[in-house]
Specification:
Layout (H helix, E strand, L loop, with lengths): L3 E4 L2 E4 L4 E7 L9 E6 L6 E6 L6 E3 L7 E6 L4 E6 L8 E7 L11 E6 L1
Parallel strand pairs: 2-10
Antiparallel strand pairs: 1-3, 3-8, 4-5, 4-9, 5-6, 7-8, 9-10
């Protein structure tokens, strides 16, 4: 069982940057593919980015490719998401989970609001 706690959300201006963090519990973190997901207001949750166990291979949704960066520190059981060149349409609650996501691993998420 993996439990995650997301943090780092907040208000950012259009074009700005923000770093999200996700700390996971358990001893299996370094063997798990990890991902970030988001749920915009009034919409379903969607995939944002995923990262291999080693951190060497990443995959991004088309909408964030080239602007966001996912990384991890296995020694700290932590996965990061750097939001760069933020856009108003990036406003959402951001979640981390294993990748693909497991329904029992969802945390509370962290709210990101991008203002114009």
């Amino acid at each position: 069982q993996v439990h995650v706690v997301e943090s780092g959300g907040g208000l950012v201006q259009d074009g700005g940057s923000l770093r999200l963090s996700c700390v996971a519990s358990g001893n299996s973190f370094s063997r798990e593919l990890m991902g970030w997901f988001r749920q915009p207001p009034g919409k379903e949750r969607e995939f944002v980015a995923g990262l291999s166990e080693s951190g060497r291979n990443a995959q991004y949704a088309d909408s964030v490719n080239g602007r966001f960066a996912i990384s991890r520190d296995n020694a700290k059981n932590t996965v990061y998401l750097d939001l760069n060149i933020a856009k108003v349409e990036d406003t959402a609650v951001y979640y981390c989970n294993t990748w693909p996501p497991h329904n029992t691993h969802w945390g509370q998420g962290t709210q990101v609001t991008v203002s114009s």
